[in-house]
Amino acid sequence: MEYSHEIIMPNDDIPFKMFVFEGRNGNYMREKHWHRSIEIFALFEGELEFYVNELRYSLKPGEFMLVNSNEIHSIHSPKKNMTIVLQIPLATFEKYYTEERFIYFSHSSRLQDEEVMKLIGDMYETYAKKKCGYELKVQSQFYMLIYLMVTKYRETDVDGEMVKHNRKLNKLSTITAYMKDNYARDLSLDSLSQTFGYSPTYLSRMFQKYARMNYKTYLDNLRLEHAYKDLVNTEQAIGEIAIQNGFPNSKSFSKVFQKKYGMLPSEFRKEHNT
């Protein structure tokens, strides 16, 4: 199969998003995050490393990772890869919720995995070519994929703690969405608590218990993601990158960067450019 190098982000023509993973060129890290949609990463070439709820998974070609709604995950892409990502709105599965708008999919080695990979590859190829009637064909393949998910991968016996965790992350998602839009501004725990009507102590505990990291770490990682891209893709001064991404100065940026990557931003940039 031949793949386009263009990232595809469909809007109105199909009821989900399908695109080539942005970390396809390697040397890429997506920090811990979560979202409402169901996400599938189908790896066709190269390798990917996932952390889902603190567990590590290494993907090889022909394998996919299924990430549930509000499942905390991070992705490491050290080398070039060809990965197709599907983001499926949670409402797609509305008829199959267990309780409190909750649905959970397991993913272990199954006979259907090969069929899922073929479906995703065919969907992408059909969509990329955009021949007459492509939307109909892609949607028919998509609903076959949904059928496999709800009949072969869905777990109907879920415990109450998992449902509670999902509910709390829904509330936390409103806060983190605000943080993502305002990461470059002053976002102290006190100011954020006032914005959303929580006490700083309660908000801090929410992050620690349900996001499994403290508030400061989440904010630093969010800023670091943007700063990392600027460091790799621009020739801006390190101090300028620090300030425009919410760090108070280059020293604080360097401290966070070194803790995460084991070297200073200047050392990383020099190594990356050689």
Please tell me about this protein's structure:
The chain is an alpha+beta fold and 274 residues long. It folds into 2 domains: 17-155, Jelly Rolls; 161-273, Homeodomain-like (Arc Repressor Mutant, subunit A, Orthogonal Bundle), CATH 1.10.10. 46% of the residues lie in helices and 18% in strands. The chain contains 9 helices and 10 strands. A hairpin with a 2-residue loop joins strand 4 (48-52) and strand 5. The protein starts with 16 loop residues before the first strand and ends with a helix. The model is unreliable at 1-10 (pLDDT under 50). Keywords: DNA-binding, Transcription, Transcription regulation.
Question: What is shown here, in short?
Answer:
This is Transcriptional regulator, AraC family. With 274 residues, the chain is α+β, with helices and mostly antiparallel strands.
Lay out the secondary structure.
Layout (H helix, E strand, L loop, with lengths): L16 E4 L7 E6 L4 E8 L2 E5 L2 E5 L3 E5 L5 E5 L4 E7 L15 E2 L7 H17 L4 H20 E2 L4 H22 L7 H8 L3 H12 L3 H19 L4 H7 L5 H12 L3 H9 L1
Antiparallel strand pairs: 1-8, 2-7, 3-6, 3-8, 4-5, 4-7, 9-10
Helix pairs in contact: 1-2, 3-5, 7-8
GO molecular function, one term: sequence-specific DNA binding
Pfam family, one: AraC_binding
Protein name: Transcriptional regulator, AraC family
